[in-house]
Structures are given as structure tokens and as C-alpha cells.
Amino acid sequence: MSEKILTRMGDGERVRMTPSEIKADIQAGTADAAKRAKIPELTAEEQKRMYDIIADPSRIVSVEPGEEVIVTDDGCSMSFYSGQNGGGVGAPLSRMQAVLTYERACGADTTSMGHSDYSYKPVKAVVDFEANDYYNISQVTTSPFFYGAQPNLGLYFQP
User: Fold this and answer.
1) Fewest Cβ atoms closer than 10 Å to its Cβ: which of 102, 111, 124, 146?
2) Based on the structure, what is the number of domains in the chain?
3) Same-domain status, 86 and 24
4) Is residue 33 part of a domain?
């Protein structure tokens, strides 16, 4: 029986998989992505590189300079100052402090902010305040800084 490798699934769940299971998962994933996006599958060399990263036993794994990719987030800095009932830690931070902590302490390559409801309707009443916060925070961040909001689809659509 081959040794199992401790890794994580896309949702963060820790699992142990054999090398052949990991390689099969990479192959299936690249085939699915190629079909959906109508792009070429990863080459055998690229798949081997991905396997080497996934199977690395180190706690922190990285790539060589020049091989990095940009990773966007969806309001991750809010988890620093929002309450525990909303999935955050509830630390006494302003939005600016939370964005800067996320960018500088966590090494985020993009940052964002948004109204706590993340919906267009409630932000309309406070859009001037949001724009002011956005401007002030954008003056002190280094990484690209986004503002996020979306329609509350539950209010506008019915099944």
C-alpha cells in the first residue's frame, strides 16, 4: 500500500490521498476545466509541476519568482472586523485597518471592501460615505483595491 499524502480539497477540508489519487484528480480537473473554458488541457509537465506543489510535505509551499498568479478575494478583510456570527473574528479594527492588515500581514495581492449587506439597495443611502472610505483606503494600499456590491437577487426574482 502506498503512503498517503496529507492535502486539502478546494473547500479547505484536509484529506489523505495516494499519489495516484492526486494525479487522477489533477487529470480530471484539467480535462473538466479545458472542456468548460474551451482551452487546452495542462501539459504533462504542467500537471507534474502541480502534483509536486500539492504533494510537497512542507507547511508553506510556494512557486519560483515569475511563476506567481494573482488571487482575488471577495471581502476577506471584512472577516477581521465583522462579528463572529458573520464568520469574522470581531477584532476592534476600522475598515482601513482591516484592509491594511489583510494586505500587509496576510500578503494579499488584491483587496476589497463593501457595505456589510453587500447589496446595492442599502448602500444607496450611504454611497457618499462609502466613496469617501474607498478613496481614503485606496490612498494607502499598494495592491489593487476593489469595491464590491451586488443586487439582492432574492428580492428581485422568484423561482
Assistant:
1) 124
2) 2
3) no
4) yes
DSSP-assigned beta bridge partners for residue 119: 150
**Assigned C-alpha cell, 43:** 501539459
By CB atoms closer than 10 A (0-12, 13-18, 19+), residue 159 is exposed
62 inside domain: no
For residue range 92-131, what is the model confidence (pLDDT) as tens digits?
888 999 999 999 988 888 899 988 877 888 889 999 999 9
- The answer as to whether 64 is a domain residue is no
* Cα-only R_g, the chain: 20
Domain that holds residue 113: 78-156
Asked if residue 85 and residue 47 are part of one domain, the reply reads no
Mean pLDDT, the chain, whole residue set: 85
- 3-class DSSP state of 6: strand
Full-model pTM? 0.56
Tell me the CA distances in angstroms from 40 to 1, 52, 106, one per residue in order. Answer: 34, 21, 33
Residue 155: alpha-carbon gap to chain centroid:
27
Instruction: Determine, yes or no, domain membership for 111.
Output: yes
